[in-house]
Design goal:
about 100 residues; mainly alpha; Guanidinium exporter; transport; 4 helices; Small_drug/metabolite_transptr; single chain
Length: about 100
């Protein structure tokens, strides 16, 4: 169940990272409220997950999924550039996340 909590935490991390763009520096009320709520939920689920998963593994996977998901949504939602370098680096992060999951006890 800890891995499910970690995935939920990572999804909320993606949500708050993207929410930062919509909140426009916390100047828009509802996007700011939703962003802060996603931050709290993300950290809560991460804390629950690392009760059972090694903290280094959990944190690295949380940030890796968050980074890949946020960068992907940046491309989709905000027309951020898609280059071979960006895609290659995102794939390397994804490989690292999968490797950490495989290596976890």
């Amino acid at each position: 169940m800890a891995w499910v909590y970690l995935l939920v935490a990572a999804l909320f991390e993606i949500g708050w990272a993207v929410g930062l763009k919509y909140s426009q520096g916390f100047t828009k009320f509802w996007p700011s409220v939703l962003t802060i709520a996603a931050m709290v939920l993300s950290l809560f689920f991460l804390a629950v997950a690392v009760r059972s998963i090694p903290v280094g593994t959990g944190y690295a996977i949380w940030t890796g999924i968050g980074a890949v998901g946020t960068a992907t949504l940046g491309i989709i939602l905000f027309a951020e550039p898609v280059t071979a370098w960006r895609v290659g680096c995102l794939l390397l992060i994804l490989c690292g996340v999968v490797g950490l999951k495989i290596a976890a006890p």
